[in-house]
């Protein structure tokens, strides 16, 4: 009987470890997606700002403000990662 109890405890530990690993992987995927989206936005706005830089000062300013807004998410991202 004690062998069965020991096996049950071991099985529970493995199940718990698998559950923790699965959650970590889910969080890692979510962080990756958030960062990829943020950096893609920054790149797109930088390209757009570069294209209108000499022609349209207001549009350039709007793109630069969006880049700044994207960068402002960094502290939140750091909190999520920790």
TrEMBL record:
Gene3D superfamilies annotated for this entry?
1.20.5.1930
The family database entries (InterPro entries) matched by this protein are listed as:
Sensor_HK_TwoCompSys, Sig_transdc_His_kin_sub3_dim/P
Q: Which UniProt keywords apply?
A: Kinase, Transferase, Two-component regulatory system
Q: Which Pfam families match?
A: HisKA_3
Q: Signal transduction histidine kinase subgroup 3 dimerisation and phosphoacceptor domain: from which residue to which, for each copy?
A: 23-69
Q: Name one GO molecular function term.
A: phosphorelay sensor kinase activity
GO cellular component terms, semicolon-separated: membrane
Matching PANTHER family:
NITRATE/NITRITE SENSOR PROTEIN NARX-RELATED, SENSORY TRANSDUCTION HISTIDINE KINASE
Protein's recorded name: Signal transduction histidine kinase subgroup 3 dimerisation and phosphoacceptor domain-containing protein
